[in-house]
What we know:
Elements: E1 6-14, H1 17-32, E2 39-44, E3 48-51, H2 64-69, E4 73-76, E5 83-86, E6 90-96, H3 105-125, E7 130-132, E8 138-141, E9 144-154, E10 157-165, E11 184-185, H4 188-192, H5 198-212, E12 216-219, H6 222-232
Parallel strand pairs: 1-2, 1-12, 3-4, 9-11
Antiparallel strand pairs: 2-6, 3-5, 6-10, 7-8, 8-9, 9-10
Amino acid sequence: MSNMDHLSVYDLGQMPYKEALALQRHLLLLRQNDEIGDTLLIVEHPAVLTLGTRGDYANIYLPRQLLAEAGVEIFEVERGGDVTYHGPGQIVGYPIVKLAHFPGSIRGYITAMATAIIDVLREEFGIEAEQRFDKYSGVWVGDTKIVAMGVAVKQGVTLHGFAFNVNTNLSHFDWINPCGLSKGVTSVEHELGHPVDFERVKQLVIKSLAGKFQKTPVMQPLENLLQMTKIADGGET
């Protein structure tokens, strides 16, 4: 299998946002230089808030002191969009891929991510969802958002990606005005009335996403990723 045909997938498990962000940025440089092929990071974060390039602190309702006391950090990042929440029970995906491979460029890429999760929702759980664009970007079940999306493109390579509410504690979204839209949020658990097998959903998302990218997913040992990024950072081999 050639490097062009496969999608290297690293399951980071539960990892703080700051660490995963550093890994993304290391991989971005490697992909820009064609030192690695297209790559997907899958992760579950402890509770954290991120602000995109259109972020407005007015959309964070809970005082920063209370957030800090709860151990919740706020990160300003280069993705599009406003404020969003990441936390336990949410599958977060960060594809580091060459955008030129996608028909329609950025819109085609975002559509590939969205439809991958829409297919999982419909085929596995009977949940009908749709993709929306403009200020209502992401994946929606009726008037409630189930997948937030925000990407950045640097020298033709993507970073950041999607956040899929599976068994997420939706009360944590009360801390913010999600994406600055004053709209509700939902999850697979909320739609079905019971939690689902998180690891199984993760594997379904990986398979569906790789299919939309027209690649074969290849799970890689986390140790390989940590070694690559250590070398890229000038560490010892």
